[in-house]
Structure formats: structure tokens, C-alpha cells
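FAQ: What does a multi-protein file look like?

Like this. Sequence, then C-alpha cells, then the next protein.
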Amino acid sequence: MSDAFSSQTALVLFSGGQDSTTCLAWALSRFARVETLGFDYGQRHAVELDCRDRLVDGIKGLHADWATKLGESHTLSIPTLAAVSETALTRDVAIAMGADGLPNTFVPGRNLVFLTFAAALAYRRGITHIVGGMCETDYSGYPDCRDDTIRAMQAALSLGMARQFELHTPLMWIDKAATWKLAHDLGGDGLVDLIREHSHTCYLGERGAQHDWGYGCGECPACSLRAKGWREYVAAR
């Protein structure tokens, strides 16, 4: 455990996916107390939110101290985000590349909104550490996942709320194979198996087909990244 954080509380953006579950374990290994926050924004894959309870129950069984560190679980509903966006994550349309070079799964402003609401909740609860699974190493090209964006948000939130927030992005500079490895380093085979069985990544919300890396359609960008990372992780073991 890092001495710098060992007596402090963190708020983890916890969607129920692979990345956020890994980030939750990362926070539990460093902070004295950890709360979680999920968002219901009209996403097609809202099934991810249903995965959180099973993931939390499983995580509690991996390390005795993790169970005692886990605090409140929060869910915020932001239906306006879907109302103002025309994307493949909030509409029943085919996933494709847009004219701007970004996939139409990009929800403009999503992470900016998430971090703003997370900081507002953290402010009320006296928390200054916020953990998110943003990554610009092995991702779909979303501009609000870039490190520059996160650093700018940290500055803006700290200035705007007169409180020194620290935004932690432990996955920012690692690829999906390294994310699987990080999960193993943090929680062993138990955490890896928990993520494979109970986390959700598929943009289409598909939970019917099970693959060696977990459930999903196997073809959307999120599934493709997760599957590719899994293959590389297994090959390197």
C-alpha cells in the first residue's frame, strides 16, 4: 500500500466493466476506504450496471481487508446525456466510423460530465481522490480519454470547487493485455476469473455468448479490444 494514500478515501468510477473493476481493485490496494459510483445515462449496455453487485461480492471474497475497505455504492441517473447525443451507445444504430474519424460510439462530453458529477459527489462526502479507467494507450480514440483531458479536468474541478482533487487513471499508459496482467497482480487468478465471468464490456449489451475472455458479441470495438488483450495476456504468461 502507498503510504501517501493509506489513510485516505477514494471514489472509483465503477461501471461494471473490465477496466473499472481493475481500477476498483487498484484503489482497494492503496486507499483506506473506497466508495464506488456508476452512471445510468441511457446506454444500450446498461446491463453493465447490473454486474456491479456480483463483482463487489466477488471482490470482497478475494482479500479480507478489501471487504472492510469497501464503502457506499452510488448510482447517478443522467438521462439528459442520451437525450442530447446521437451515438451508437445511446441509440439502436449500427456501430461505424464517423466523418470526423471517431467511432459513433463516442458520446461527446461523457467523461467530462462523469468527472464533474463525481467531483460534486466527492466534495459532499469529503473525498479528494477520484479513480477512473480512462486510457489512451489501447482504446477507441475518444478524446475525453486522453491524459491531457484528464489533467485539464483535474485543474478545472479543483479551481471550480476550491478543493484540490486528484484524478487517478492507473490504466492510462498500459494496453489491454497489461490491464489483464494488472488485475492478476492485484488479485491473482481469482480477480481475473471474476472479471471474465461477471464484468461487462460489450457495447451491444450482449450477455448470451461466452468467450474465453468473458461475455459479449465478440465483434464490437469494446469486445475486440478486450479479446485482443486477453489473447496477448495469455500468450505472455
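And here is the next protein:
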Amino acid sequence: MLNYLDKLKNTDSGNFFLMAGPCAIEGEDIAMRIAEKIITITDKLQIPYIFKGSYRKANRSKGSSFTGIGDEKALRILERIGREFGVPTVTDIHESAEAAMAAAYVDVLQIPAFLCRQTDLLIAAAETGKVVNVKKGQFLSAGSMKFAVEKVKEAGNNKVILTDRGNTFGYQDLIVDYRGLPEMQSFGVPVVMDCTHSLQQPNQSSGVTGGKPELISTIAKAAIAVGADGLFIETHPDPANAKSDGANMLHLDLLEETLTKLIRIRQAIL
């Protein structure tokens, strides 16, 4: 993903960029269908697009929760999507040893929020030469993310993105402080708002994370209004039966309408 800053900007439309896809890679057919639908929408709306899908979910409340279909199988699906549709792809990594493995298949390595302070993990991701998207921990201030940026850059990689996903608010909820977006932009990197994970309701007694997907457009509108460079939205054609994070994903059928409204806001503030 050379000249990554240029590729994340549409100089004709002035639009934000989008990271979107299912929470986890559940299988090849559904991943390809989701990718094709999103690409049809983003091409129509002139929105630069990065396909998102986790090849494995390492952070689960219950040991019996879905974690993946197999690392190599899922990574090859991500590789196929990138190759056949000509779009960059992003996936999470969880341990330093995974960086080089995942980098062989995708364009962007994502550091999960809970792991954003893990120095060895950040350095390993940076050393692959891929774009590194670091999610801000729910437990951190926006200002503290400058140290994550420094770790990646000091490892010789200037291709960094920061993503906000809300702050811990009590035991079972999150809240978004929109002051953090411009503060993180002051570090000289693109800043993304994760519109779905910021609506999670973690630590439920059932062991399954809840969410408020009806507020996804609200979070997204506010993020665009304060100048976010990009949006992160997990989406699925059947969230109720998704194998991971269905409680806070946007229904795929609602994506085009949502993005169209966001473009109007973007145009109004340019």
C-alpha cells in the first residue's frame, strides 16, 4: 500500500475513507458477498475503501465463543478479496509472531485496543513495512496515543493510522469523547472513528457483549462533523446470526443510506 496517505484520500470527492466488513471471516462465500456489496457502494459514492475482516478473534468473553475458521484459511480469503477486487485489506494481530504471517496476506495490520501499549507487538507490526492501524485503548486518553505512534515510527515505519473506539464508562458501557479526534490528528496521522465497537456494552453477565447498533449513524455523523479522516464500520447481511459481535454491527442493507448522509455532512464542512 504505497503512498498510503494519498490512497486514503479521494482528491475528487474529498470524502473520508472507510474500513468496513464483517467482524470475523466466517467463510469465503459470505466474505466475498460482503466485499462485493460494499465495493459497489463505495465505488458509486467515491469513498476510498479498505476491506476489514479478523482472521481470528483472540479476545472473547467465553471460551466457547467463535474465534475463527483457521488462520491460514481466513488469511487466504482476505488475500483473495484484495486480489480480485483490487482493494486493500486489514486484519487484527494479537502477538508479535503473527505480524509477519498476516503481513504476507494483507495490506494493513490492526492492533486491537486492549493491546495498543504492547511495545513488542507494535514494533513487530511496524517492521513488516505494512500500514499499522492502532486502536486506542478504552482505558487511555487520546493524548497518550502519541507514544504508540512514536513506537511505530521509531521502528522505521511512518505509515500509521489511529482509531478511536470510545472510552470505558462504568463497568458495562463506553462513551465517545470527540475532543480526542483532533487531538490525535495533531500527531500527524490519519484518525478513524470506530462507529461500531464504540457502541459495545462489554462485561455482560451472559458472557456475550451487547451493543446499541441503532446509534451507529449518530456516532458516525458526529465523527465526520468534527473532521475524522476515516470511519470503521463492521457490517453484516444478517447481524443477528453473525458469529462474532452481531450485537453492534450495522446491517449491510443500511450501509449505502448511512454513507450517503455522511457524505452530505462532509461536504458541508469542507
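Q: Is there any per-entry metadata?
A: Some entries carry free-text notes. For the entry above: The two ends are 26 Å apart (CA to CA).
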